[in-house]
Amino acid sequence: MRHLVQQFMKFGIVGVIAFAIDYGLMVALTELAGVEYLLSASISFTVSVIFNYLASMRYVFTHKEGLSRHREFVIFVVLSVIGLGINDALMWLGTSLLGISYLITKIGATAVVMVYNFVTRKKFLDAGAGAPDERTADDAGDVEPIALRG
Questions:
Q1: pLDDT tens per residue, range 3-41
Q2: Using CA atoms in the order 122, 123, 125, 128, what is the torsion angle rounded to 10 degrees?
């Protein structure tokens, strides 16, 4: 249970950074560049997925033995595309149907997609707490890379 809590905390930190990228880019594209909110939300979400993959697979989840990095990335992208669909549906529902500001709707959509992302990535991409992987914990509990597998 302790491992799961620590993992969710790391996921939360990566998620906050990814959200800042997603939200900031969405606002910049919509407000400064005049891009329609749903398109800007899709673009910003996609950019944040790239960051999220790199950070999540390095700091949050343990690489599954026997799962190639290519396949891992494909699974991550497929799960993220589903998350994008959930995100966009909630953005449309909140903004176009209910008349809530896209700025507020995005926060709620992000919360829903965050839960979806953690559960699905844990299920499909994480080897679990006791699995061997590229990381090792020192006495302070910090995680450091020790080797890269191909």
A1: 888 999 999 999 899 989 999 999 999 999 999 998 998
A2: 70
